[in-house]
Amino acid sequence: MKLYSLPHSPYSARVRMQIYSKQLNIDILPPEIPLKTTEFKDAYPMGKVPILEISETELIPEATAIAEYLEDEFPENPCRPKSSSKLAMTRATVSFANSHFGPSLFPLFKNMAEKDAHPDKSTFTQPLCTELEKLDRWMAIHTSDAYDIGDFALATNLWYATTLAPAYDQPDILMQYPRVKAWWEAIKKQPHVEKVLDEMAAGFAAFVKKNKQ
Ligand SMILES: N[C@@H](CCC(=O)N[C@@H](CS)C(=O)NCC(=O)O)C(=O)O
Q1: Buried (b) or exposed (e) across 18-54, using 16+ Cβ within 10 A?
Q2: pLDDT, tens only, 40-99
Q3: Which residue's alpha carbon is nearest to atom 20 within ligand 1?
Q4: Taking burial as the number of CB atoms within 10 A of a residue's CB, which of 38, 78, 180, 201 is the most buried?
Q5: Is residue 62 lining ligand 1, measured as CB closer than 6 Å?
Q6: Nearest CA, atom 5, ligand 1
Q7: Measured between alpha carbons, how far is 95 from 6 in angstroms, rounded to an integer?
């Protein structure tokens, strides 16, 4: 089994956290055809990483579908709660990361990766702060017993939030969100999470350098 992934891709990174946590024997490698090319889009209809290659004919796109497949197929070292209500909460967290938190980071990422960064910094972080506030309130009612696929989806977004915000005059963007801050300080020290965050940092530095050339 192979996972096509890029180091700085947050959607790929959350799946890598899960693979390392579950100690799965899956090859992790960049796509053989370069991303964003016509050839890649012809080969893979969704046109994005991550992609899990189960066999030559079975290719799963979409981080959430891959995460659920890995839990169904490899139940040992679970990264998904057992009780229906807790599982639904975890899935709500994944959905929040996909549909709310992640998109609030796009403007910061896009501006940062562009050759000529936009000079007006004030407008970029407001949508992100709105989502962090929601997350802080969500964390007051939803607590997980162990780190799970919801936490991994949040962690890769938190890495981008804390990495990008200082360039937008927000040196400590989590300051006003104490539950998120405490959760972030704890999860980033988990060995499998830390390993992936290091991979993201190296991959993002290379990506920015290439884009600015
Ligand atoms: N909905 C997809 C999003 C994946 C995604 O946006 N991947 C980015 C890298 S983080 C990508 O492959 N972008 C290439 C492109 O948009 O052409 C998922 O959950 O896996």
Answers
A1: bbbbbebebebeebeeeeeeeebeeebeeebbbbbbe
A2: 999 999 999 999 999 999 999 999 999 999 999 999 999 999 999 999 999 999 999 999
A3: 62
A4: 180
A5: yes
A6: 48
A7: 22
How far CA 93 is from CA of 45, 88, 141, 144, 150, in Å, comes to: 26, 9, 12, 11, 5
Within 9-121, strands assigned E span 27-29, 51-53, 59-61
Q: What is the pLDDT of residues 135-171, one digit of tens each?
A: 999 999 988 889 999 999 999 999 999 999 998 889 9
User: Which pTM does this prediction carry?
Assistant: 0.95
Provide the pLDDT for residue 115.
Answer: 58
Q: What distance in angstroms lies between residue 44's CA and the mean position of ligand 1's atoms?
A: 12
Q: What is the DSSP letter of 100?
A: I
Reduce the DSSP state of residue 90 to 3 states and report it.
helix
The residue type found at 175 is M
Map out the domains of the chain with their CATH numbers: 2-73 (3.40.30.10), 84-212 (1.20.1050.10)
Q: Which two tokens stand for residue 23?
A: 């100690």
Are 156 and 98 spatial neighbours (Cβ–Cβ below 8 Å)? no
- Confirm or reject: Cβ of 113 under 6 Å from ligand 1: no
| pLDDT at 22 exceeding the cut of 80 | yes
Structure tokens at 84: 């229906």
